[in-house]
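User: Okay, second chain of the day. Same drill as before: sequence in, structure tokens out.
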Amino acid sequence: MAARILAFLTDRRTRAVLAWAALLLLIGHRAGQAWINFKQELRPCGNDGYTSIDFGGQWMLGRLLVTGHGQELYSRERHLEIARVAYPRDQEPPNKATHDAEQLVEWYAGPADDPIGGPLYPPIHAFVMAPLALIANPYVSYRVTEGLMLGLVLLAGLGVRYGTHGRWWWSAATAYLLAFPGCRGGIDLGQNSPLSMALLMWGWALMVRGRPAWGGLLWGLLAFKPVWAVSFLAALLLLRQWRAALAMTATGTGLVLLSLPFVGVHSWFDWLHIGQIAAGMYTTDRNWIFLSRDLFGIPRRMLLDFNEGRATRASPLAGALGWGLWLTVAAITCAMVWRRCRNANLSGPFAGLVLLAAWLLTYRFMYYDALLAAVGVVAILADPRPHFRRTWWPFASWASLNASFLLLIENVTSPLNVEVTASIHGLKGTVTAADQSTHVTAPTIFVASGDEYPWDTIAVIALWLWCVLTVWRIRRSSVGAAEIDQGGANVSGTHQ
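Assistant: Same drill. Structure tokens below.
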């Protein structure tokens, strides 16, 4: 009986039906969740997601461009003027203290008296958002954006199928991406992580299928998110994908140059000014630290104490540990690339090692961009059969186990949102209060299962370490085999 049940579950037709059932269930769940998230019954439209900095800030960049203010993309005064028209008072809850427009602009990085302000995205992002900003009503545009982000995940699943030569079914690939960490936030917030992931997935797929220039061109479109463009350009160089890297560089540079007649050179310097302000906020703002997923944020959320959303003291140790993590991942990755044979494949453990390292080494990013790590996971499991052998079914390797654990983070542990706070007794520090009084305190460790703790980053690190160990063993095995062959040749020559 058990054998029949196992045979039924492992039958190809059964697995196909289960994959399609999972996909349809996830599409319905993600769409329904996006619709009801940020529900606000006191608003006439019933939702306030379109007023958040996540969608609203992006939409404002596009709106300034399409209304003829491309030369003022980062003018705080112009943002406020356009926002007051786009977010009228009659669409707010009764007796709301702060106008939506003013609240949106107040969220921008930097002091309110700084004339330069705006979202953290570069001027190119205004062109990305321009089609959506043609919709004058930001609420309607927000709903369209949510649907578009969901559709881009489906498109990325098709890219997985193409890049894996059909070994990943479209239904299974799309279901996996919908359940991957960061996908929920990208759709709900109208964020652009599904777009970034679709570009990465299709670019990787085209490279795998022997079209490196086209793949590099798609990756070059990541110029609207420069920190990711830099990281994945480095990945192409480590993977020796010279044509793809050249195409990516040319595409990104071309997009910057094409933007200049519309936004001017000064807009790029304004964006750099905002980026410098935001870099400082990343080290002190509790919300940004706890929602981040980069390596620098891990020690900060553990070693800093916060009061009213701000760090109460500086922590050189947190900064040093962050750089230590970053340099460790970078050094090990470069060492493994140096030991690797010259012919670097775009799928398997080595490709996964480099692509996951590119994700880990990216400079400061939020939880919804965890979705971009999916390209590294897919590269590792491009041929899933060795990882899901029936003898150990369903987990034949730690890679498949970690890839499955990533799905639990988004769909099981995060919704539970369990929080634990503990003080480290024996370690004391001095805190200076606003009234200049000082008192001794013990550092506090905060651990949570929700969006405020980087379990997805930890899972990616574990998968990256698996790649490191696997590539190391493969390298040692290949060297040993070469030495045996060389020894055999010498013996044969002696006998002759």
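DSSP finds 21 helices and six strands in the chain.

User: Thanks, on to the next one.
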